[in-house]
């Protein structure tokens, strides 16, 4: 039997409630990361901490990266008997007076939540059915790439996907180009090359997107290019797959009326991902 999982820690202590006021709740003034745990080991922790550090700097938060890392490691140690788990860290600017202006003496609040996962993340994931979202991802270069707390566009897109009977939503940017899925980055395959949308105006710079670009594609002899992708180009692609910190690399099986029956490149990349997971778990160099 699996041990009980403490689900919430606030500033390093087990908790059942969030202290108020909190600017994360009031204004979405904060960031988050979602990590995949295997027997208490946080996969690609360095990627997550690097993205979190960049976000803290861009939002002009007081330096709290060491506190964040300590909170993650403490929580992860308590989950060492779970085969797989999801660990989320949310960093808000903490308490503050009324009004949008951040207090000059803010003390960031660090909330960690955990949940067990049932799937063995080394198994090949089933293809996703996706529907094109009606809502578009608005352009904001100052926030592009960040995993900030303002995710209402993705909430609406996910609701639209559910209403369409799809697993996820394909999101377009303000110019009508493909940006990503609501909960994952997107890649297409053309003539043995991978293409993924640039994220200078909107979207999230995913840790698994980075992993594909820096490690997995080179390991499979594939090149990756960032290019603007029209919806038609995505639907005409030989293969489409997505990347997500919990789901790993997952093929897209359909997008509206377009269907893909085979996913040889996605399968190769998934096996490379499994190999990297094993080396990362063993403490080796991926």
Automatic annotation (TrEMBL):
<comment type="pathway">
    <text>Cofactor biosynthesis; tetrahydrofolate biosynthesis; 4-aminobenzoate from chorismate: step 2/2.</text>
</comment>
<dbReference type="Pfam" id="PF01063">
    <property type="entry name" value="Aminotran_4"/>
</dbReference>
<dbReference type="InterPro" id="IPR001544">
    <property type="entry name" value="Aminotrans_IV"/>
</dbReference>
<keyword id="KW-0456">Lyase</keyword>
<protein>
    <recommendedName>
        <fullName>Aminodeoxychorismate lyase</fullName>
        <ecNumber>4.1.3.38</ecNumber>
    </recommendedName>
</protein>
<dbReference type="InterPro" id="IPR043131">
    <property type="entry name" value="BCAT-like_N"/>
</dbReference>
<keyword id="KW-0289">Folate biosynthesis</keyword>
<comment type="similarity">
    <text>Belongs to the class-IV pyridoxal-phosphate-dependent aminotransferase family.</text>
</comment>
<dbReference type="InterPro" id="IPR017824">
    <property type="entry name" value="Aminodeoxychorismate_lyase_IV"/>
</dbReference>
<dbReference type="InterPro" id="IPR036038">
    <property type="entry name" value="Aminotransferase-like"/>
</dbReference>
<keyword id="KW-0663">Pyridoxal phosphate</keyword>
<comment type="function">
    <text>Involved in the biosynthesis of p-aminobenzoate (PABA), a precursor of tetrahydrofolate. Converts 4-amino-4-deoxychorismate into 4-aminobenzoate (PABA) and pyruvate.</text>
</comment>
<dbReference type="GO" id="GO:0030170">
    <property type="term" value="F:pyridoxal phosphate binding"/>
</dbReference>
<dbReference type="GO" id="GO:0008696">
    <property type="term" value="F:4-amino-4-deoxychorismate lyase activity"/>
</dbReference>
<dbReference type="GO" id="GO:0005829">
    <property type="term" value="C:cytosol"/>
</dbReference>
<dbReference type="GO" id="GO:0008153">
    <property type="term" value="P:4-aminobenzoate biosynthetic process"/>
</dbReference>
<comment type="subunit">
    <text>Homodimer.</text>
</comment>
<dbReference type="GO" id="GO:0046656">
    <property type="term" value="P:folic acid biosynthetic process"/>
</dbReference>
<dbReference type="InterPro" id="IPR050571">
    <property type="entry name" value="Class-IV_PLP-Dep_Aminotrnsfr"/>
</dbReference>
<dbReference type="InterPro" id="IPR043132">
    <property type="entry name" value="BCAT-like_C"/>
</dbReference>
